[in-house]
Task: structure prediction
Amino acid sequence: MSSNAVSELGGRELTRWFWRQLTSMRTALMLLLLLAIAAVPGSLVPQRGVDAQAVETYFLEHPKSAPILDDLGFFSVYSSPWFSAVYLLLMVSLVGCILPRAFVYYRALRARPPKAPRNFSRLPASASFETDSSPDEVVAAARRALGRSRIDVVDRDGVREVSAEKGFLREAGNLLFHVSIVVVLIGVAVGTLFGYRGSVIVTDGGGQFANSLPQYDEFSSGTLFHTDDLPPFSLTLDKVTAKFQPFDSPQAGAPREFRAAGTYSAKPGDEPKPFDITVNHPLAIGNTSVYLLGQGYAPVFKITDANGDVVYNDAVPFLPADSTYTSNGIIKVPDAQPEQLGFQGFFIPTAVTQNGKDVSTSAHPAAANPLVGLNVWHGDLGLDDGTSQSVFTLDKSKMQQYTVGDQNFRVSLQPGMTADLPDGGTIEFTELRQFARFQIGSSPLVKVPLFGIIAGLIGLMASLTIKPRRTWIRTRQDGSRTVVEVAVLDRVPRDDLPADLDDFLERFKDQLGHTEEKKLV
Result:
């Protein structure tokens, strides 16, 4: 329809025209393609709901483009208005396509097979032969040869016509495939709106986590989820096991096993139960799943200030940056006197030096020769202004780095070593622990998309393999002989139709042959 014709339509006619355009199969396919294209940025750009730390890193590395992408919603693609609009339009379009086709299919199921055409020779595949059997016997043989096809027999002036139709499950498969897409969309939408997901780092040796919002390092939820609905479970991490291929292996350093073991309580007051989580084998607590995403090292530091007071004594997770687990970490000491302290540095699990260089590198992800290197800052950490900060970033805008002469002051420590700080305090690397990074989430109707995908595959296979076919048989008496005409027509054009007609004629004549043999007996 041209733009001029559209402009001349009234409000009702224009609404009807728009609805027909929206609910056409072509529009549904275009929207499905558009949804796939709209999802591409979600796999190329880090998402806040998946890895907020990666988003912060992206802002630091791309200070010019990151704000623009943020305004466009590229860091929260799947909850952005433009993605939601395409999502809703696709669902409406599919439902608008499915309902009319379902009614048409229902009427077709109840309708009689179509009448035989006048001239069989105009059809793509037809044949004729003569037989000694009577027309009634030909019709009976035709019924047996047609099997489960829907059959209708008509008498017209001494001519008997058999109309048969089969392959109705093809359209049922088509409808099932389109319904399955709607089921997947609904399942994903419900899971997104009512679900939540967060990540948390817990150190072994008794590290604890309670399922409340302040405990999460990263947290995101659907618009219809309320944080008061978080299930009140808690867990204690006793041991993290990480095994890698040994040094002398061809795949030295490759992961072999990651495991987190401890106890959990589904609600306060319950008896703790043991858990053992491995990769792809989460802990299920009600509708919540706890996945093991990764692990790393958490050195324990004991820090005293210039007054000799212990102002810090805790494990600090260092986040792995490469396959050898060279890791980065931050220590914030707001209680230090006379100034607050900040430490930024790296952890190397198996430190080695090469070619006489002072800089150490990690030769293996296992902690065979752990080493920590830290730069020290003093001043204001920026924690007192009420602005939240990530535990993995250090705000240096109001701090200065300690120096010794013209060189920046840095401490290098191995387990059991202590170093003096320029302000008169000390820092001690007391022991080495490990941490586990858990992803905790709940997605209502999480299995519905899986069932939808399975149903869609079944429907797709049915629509591709089932042949919707119409068969007509016309028989009339010609003296002592009976003339039989046969024609077949596929509703979907196929090259194998003549061969299928030959197969059917062979079965048909075989049934007639059995009938004639019985008459002779």
Residues 153 and 162 are 5 Å apart (CA to CA). The longest strand covers residues 288-304. The two ends are 70 Å apart (CA to CA). The mean pLDDT is 87.
